[in-house]
Amino acid sequence: MDINGQAEGSVIEERSARRRLPPQERRQQIIDGAVAFFAEVGFDGKTRDLAKRLGVTQSLLFNYFATKDELIEAVYEQVYLNRLAPDWPDRLTDRSVPLRGRLLAFYSEYSTLIFQYEWMRIFMSSGLSGAELNRRYLKHLGDVILRPLLGEIEFAARSGEIPTMEDIWNLHGGIVYIGIRQHIYRTPCPDDPSVAITRAVDRFLLAFGIDEA
Amino acid sequence: MDINGQAEGSVIEERSARRRLPPQERRQQIIDGAVAFFAEVGFDGKTRDLAKRLGVTQSLLFNYFATKDELIEAVYEQVYLNRLAPDWPDRLTDRSVPLRGRLLAFYSEYSTLIFQYEWMRIFMSSGLSGAELNRRYLKHLGDVILRPLLGEIEFAARSGEIPTMEDIWNLHGGIVYIGIRQHIYRTPCPDDPSVAITRAVDRFLLAFGIDEA
DNA sequence: TCGCTTATTGAGCATTTGATCAATCTTATT
DNA sequence: AATAAGATTGATCAAATGCTCAATAAGCGA
Questions:
Q1: Are A141 and A123 in contact (CB under 8 A)?
Q2: What residues of chain A have any CB closer than 8 angstroms to a CB in chain B?
Q3: Span A160-182, mean pLDDT?
Q4: Does domain B82-207 have CATH number 1.10.1740?
Q5: Is the N or the C terminus of chain B less surrounded, counting Cβ atoms within 10 Å?
Q6: What's the pLDDT at B189?
Q7: Taking 70 as the threshold, does the pLDDT of residue B125 lie above it?
């Protein structure tokens, strides 16, 4: 968001005026810049380009991160942090609320969280390069969100169809694919994915005889 | 498949025996190797590593491709070529066959075509790096497969729901996501995706009152 | 078997790139 | 205003990397 104060004192502050920041602050600034940078160009982006974008020397980066890999690790942490709200498992299994409402609320919040340029692209890049954090995230998602969701669908099901984990992944994948089209493939997409999501959820529930619409 | 003849005459042919191939053949061998190589490590893979894997000098690559980018273009062509069978549009709109059968036949063939390591990873890599070929492919897919499919669903629909293009993309995305989990994220997946696909298609048809199951 | 064409090699060039470190300059403190 | 601490820089290194080219030798025809 804020790459630099940019204007402080004089209206036109000659750029590249050496600016001294508290280490913690500078570190965070570098991480934020690195997230945006690597999201855009991939993890093979050059440290010199990142430094230039930050308005800082390349050597400065190595004062805060011993190696480029260490910086990338920090980027991972920053991006993966808090991507799964801890209260979702509870809210998804709160049977005092209709299942459809729970599902729509979850995917409404989740999609605004993940349908973002930085997340989508860094998640995909790290997945491609085999980052362990990626599989950990997906396992976690499966364990604390999708598996309980399967239980809820089973519980609410009125038709003979018994849902499977693959069915849940299919629902999830169909929704996530919107974000992939938008930020990875950069293909024309609806500005507001919520109607597509709602319809997907309703189709899914209908198949198991759950129609609260 | 065949990196080298490997055994010809003597049982143990000392490797790195200089082997002279017809240019066309060598070129194809390089392309095939490059597809596998770049699929695995991404397009920032080094030409020296690729050459080593081919059992050939790095400089040889530049006798067949002026630049690395040109080699990558050849990889694109090789991978994207014939990924969409030209008879699918016709078969998908052949109303003498039940829609469900057409859909299942299409996704059965299509999934075996695209749920492959090389395709999935190169398609995703090229998408991330903004390759034009990627968007072209998706536009083509939308135009010649998914759009006609929308027409077929509309025609067969028995419920009040009117399908939209986004609904079709959702069906498609949910299915493709299986391949993404398998080859990009390397997450546990069903060996045979056909049951998941069948169930997804059936849920979709059911939502529009099309149940021929 | 000899000779010729040309596929292939190996050495090497110019940049790029991650990483280092002593010198410099900003800023808080006195 | 003077001082000290340490954040930041600029020059630089070594390795990696895309690419070139003269030299080499594999395989075909005579």
A1: no
A2: 42, 44, 121, 124-125, 127-130, 134-135, 138-139, 164, 166-167, 169-178, 180-181, 184-187, 190, 195-196, 199-200, 202-204, 206-207
A3: 97
A4: no
A5: N
A6: 95
A7: yes
